Amino acid sequence: MKNGTRLAAVDLGSNSFRLEIGQLDHGQIHRTEYLKETVRQGNGLDADRNLTPDALQRGWDCLARFGERLAGFKPANVRAVATQTIREARNRDVFITRAQELLGFPIDVISGTEEARLIYQGVAHLLPQSDERRLVVDIGGRSTELILGHHLNAQTMASYRVGSVAWSMRYFANGDLSTSAFKAAEVAAKAILDETCTLYSRKQWDVAYGSSGTMGAVAEILSASGWPAETVTRDGLEWLLEKLIKAKHADNVYLLGLKEDRRAVIGGGVSILRAVFDLLKIDHLYHAQGALRHGVLYELIESDEDKGDIRSNSINRLARNFEVDTKQAACVADTSAFFFTQLRSKQDLNDIEFNLSMRKLRWAAQLHEIGTRISHSEYHKHGAYIVDNADVSGFDLSELHRLSQLILGHRGKLKKVDAALSQSTFVQQLLCLRLAVILCHARTDCDTTDLRLEQSKNKPQRFKLLIPLKWEQQYPQSAHLLREEVIAWSKTEWELVVQNNGT
Question: Is 313 left (phi over 0), alpha (psi -120 to 50) or beta?
């Protein structure tokens, strides 16, 4: 990527939406513009976990403004990510569909672990190089991320459903800031964060950093009142707690450094921060300038190979954890790729899109038997569930769902993935995967000599698999399975034909 390239990251947080625009300069990104709007979608989830009409509209209005600012940016130079509130929302598809139209760019809904990884990337890139072992704490509107890392590598990551907006709504609902409310909020936070005592114990890290909203707000308040700059200490938190309790109500809190948009959620944020201090035995927490949006920006400048390595490593780790038969997975992956390449001329994809689709197909093939550790008869269903619900670094939730649908649909009836069969590339990927599973059924090297898969020019929904004349006699079981495959596709809007190629 050339120096001077403009890049943009959009962070759809539970409390605020943020737009960070920067310019690339010899591997560093220098901010040129920063926009933040307090959308507070985190308090816009109803009892059924649907975003209310008002919450939907607040988000859409903000993204329309961001979209106007991003007009003219190349798609490869912009990435938007949505976090906990959108992850939770049952009607997130309603929000995302309209939001993408207004913003003008895709929006990735990322998992909590992926959010944590990107937060660490943002923090680490904006800190001086050091050999210190780092603990990073990010208290957001509806989730808290904790990360242990070294240099630029996040090593232990977790996301917990406890955040400043959610806790303020639950324990300080009317704005009352009482001693009993803080005690209840801290106890509840500790109950959720209790496991962090082992995972993030004091011996695991040298220096603790706090990122983003709550940490920044508390650090600013303390600094404005004479406490050490960019630092939160136990004594400082005790002083702040006394000030809040003395005020009795959020509307009465007037502290230097406290911004108006933080007033309503300061109670929840402070109670969680105090819980983290106690559990992890933190004495000093330093305010880090980096955050989620910075991690997103720095990943934009990574090469496709670097991004592929992150994802491939994650897939390899998942396959290893579930003891996947690597030889069989490789056979299915290679055979799938063989057929997918033959369909290249019928794919409305540029080279980058084709390579990404190919990688996703190979990843699905690598994991297609991941569910066998749970059940042999319906392993594809269990495999799909695992992938749909796993924390896999480098992937957003929609990408994991796409992989899960390929795994779910790689055998048996196709009705279970009917909703995805309207997408031509998915159908091509799925057909190639299903054919590969059939041809590799004997769990030996697959002979694809003289096999050819074509997609009809005049009828794009028809595929034709050409086989040699004596192939059926040589591979009778594979031929039987192919006949079953023809029947399976005949029950959809797509068609598969198997015929001799005359050789």
Answer: alpha
